[in-house]
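Supplementary Data S3. Sequence and structure tokens for construct A.
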Amino acid sequence: MKSKQLVVESPARDKPVPKSATEIVSVIVPAYNAGQKLGYQLEALYNQEFDGDWEVIVIDNGSTDNTANVVKTYQRKMPQLRLLQAPERRNRSYARNEGVKVARGNLLLFCDADDVVGENWVPAMAAALRKHTFVICPLESRRLRESAQEDETFINRMSLKEVYLDFLPVAMGCAFAVRRDAFEACGGYSENFPRSQDVDLSWRLQLAGHEIELTEDTVVYGRPRSTYKAIMKQGFEFGVAQVNLYRTFAHHGMPNSSFKAAVAEYWRLVKQLRGFHRKSRLKREQWVQKASFRVGRLFGCFRYRRLYF
């Protein structure tokens, strides 16, 4: 499913879809080498109490571990669980798009293989999606953290309809639901975004006139990165992706970043190196994430030939 050019339309009020189009819910779960954590997500989906017709599709995006075997084990007790092999292109957007192609449902729910959905996630998201085109729920970022700290943010602010990069609110792909017709009209997930594909799609949906609806009747438990290497990689990729977002949406009104603010942030990071070894694990992780993010921004400026510091 290829990404189409952005089309701006006047906002359209969401209307409930006909009952016949709401009878099947498809949960899309992309997975790559997720064998160690996928079982927790599948167990959470297995325990959902939902009376409607629904399916779970795990898309194995070329895994070299036991991801497929974990799915096959759960298929013994989850008749609605399907496994799709999609090794041709290792890309989360590609995997999600391939999952949608084979999905039976008109209501599409997206979650990640390494997170855990709340106990009533499927019925709550499906109920909200019957009234609205485009739905998100909060992301709780502490429960699955391997080294939880008391001062950690309880709810990820980006999942609460807050404006991102001074442009538009964002829907996170791990806690996201959309009607199939709107998803396909917008071209699905762009496969040109190695990271922040969810931001790109949620912005295109909003520019097409679909407002984000937040339901707080459920939650997704996100799993933060647990190693410095993983945190550094994620921060770097987010930095690069933001330049790509600016390149894509600047002509839709996304403002440029502040060079002065960027310089001030670099200076803060340098000053925070004092006594670094005495800081808590959480504080060190936050510094690594911010520093790698800033390096990613610089790299993105060169890659995409855009100044977005």
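Construct B, processed identically:
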Amino acid sequence: MNFISQEDFKLLNDKTFKKDKPFYELISHNLDDKNCKIITDNQDYAIVFGNVIWIWIKNQREDTYLKVITILENLINELLTFVCQEDFYKYLQNINWKYLKGKPYICGCYECKKIIVPKKVNGKIDKPTIKDTEYLAKCFEESLDYSSPSWDVNVMFVTRWINSNNFYVWRDDKIVAYASYTVHDNMAEFGNVYTLPLERGKGYMPNLIYGMIKNSFKSKLRPIVYTNYEYVSSNKCYKKVGFELKCKLIKFNVEED
């Protein structure tokens, strides 16, 4: 398999690649590692390696698909995870590619270019302080779909968020919701979104996200969010304040037949 270095990765200057790159979150993160492995023809496709292997295809043509499939089949000697454009994954399904395993995860990539003002609610956006650490650690523990390793781990995560510049809460007498964004290149990637179960459906989160978008715009950042495309209620919250779907990416596993 012929890998190239980033110095020889000419697609970095390709107009289509530059346009797509903000919505390929982990391509950017993978490329932060100057030693990351890349397979590309520097024209029509790129396969960028990391914990998840990202497949980017410039033009959705069958001849390019077949080239990429040949490369993938030479890689498959263990369980691997890939992410690709929706069109390419549908092609793999249509040809009954034998290496596909399990149900894919559909990621919706949203961007907010024009903000929408949500219905006003009680309370205000705020920055938490160290005094809020214990309360937020409890909220964080409640938000997990799995058992937390320890209370100290909860406190560690929350402390990092509080010490960052981009972690916000909504207060209505008490903290009822929180969210953050991380900055990468010129993008503000929203995440760590949580509303207390008894406070849901009251409009707190749209107002919190709205305030955060305004702050990101002031810093000349592009607000983006990656969500589970099939999680309708969460996506509705983002749409209420102006996020629009830019593309769908498919995360899927392959395994040697």
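Residues 115-241 form a domain with the Aminopeptidase fold (CATH 3.40.630.30). The chain is about 35% helix and 30% strand.
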